Amino acid sequence: MLVSGFTIVRNAIKFNYPVVESIKSILPICDEFIVNVGDCEDNTLELIQSIKDPKLKIIRNNWDFSKGELVLSQQSNIALSQCKGDWAIYLQSDEVIHEKDLPRLKKIMQKFLSEANIDALRFKWLHFYGSFYRYRIDSGWFQKEDRIIRNNGQIHLYSGAFGFERKDKKPLRRIKTGCFIYHYGWVQPPDTMTKRRINAESIGFTQLFKEERVQNYDYGNLERFPIYFGTHPNVMNERILSHQLSREDCAKISRKYWWSPFRIFRVRYKTFKRVDIRICR
3-123+136-185 belongs to which CATH class? Predict the structure, then answer.
């Protein structure tokens, strides 16, 4: 069995993407990893090169932003086209896999390798927000998505590269892995979050009010959101320890929920119940 990984990245340093951690988190079960690097305003290319892993293959392209959000699926599919594996694992540059899930993922890929009727493997999502100990499960935040596909040329990314579809438009036939994607795109310093949102607006993902372009992003009261008591991928330890808001939030959680078995045993768990943040206190 051959396994390929792939991603796209641009301005990772400017926008504080944990792309190195993302790539390193999945490399142990990949035979190759394709990185499509766009034209950057920082040293992203050198950052990717610093990983120094023989599995890594870097391709460079000019990204056509006149296509709006479609540029992301277009560039992701270019990276996918370079993959030679039986399976292709797609991680965006702020998505990370926990090392404890790697053996399970490898086992599932091996199990279904010969079953051509299985198109994709599905993950649960942890969208961390403001703090590494809070996540979003309210309306508008998708909670499951495919990130491993059978690399047979019949599946591609669509729209803004949120997910995959079959080229013949038939429904994807998938297996649930039970594993998490750790999404860290919304755990940023407030000024960096504002820059990222302005960048997202320029691509076509959102529309901001004038004041949102000049003010630092406000996460609001983090106690509105569910607590994550579990462990994070080891590759993220340095970022977590250096994040001031997360340190403060963790201290509050530890004082208030010192008795919780989830905190004591660091259970990797998220609630299955949608949380309406409008009524949270």
Answer: alpha beta
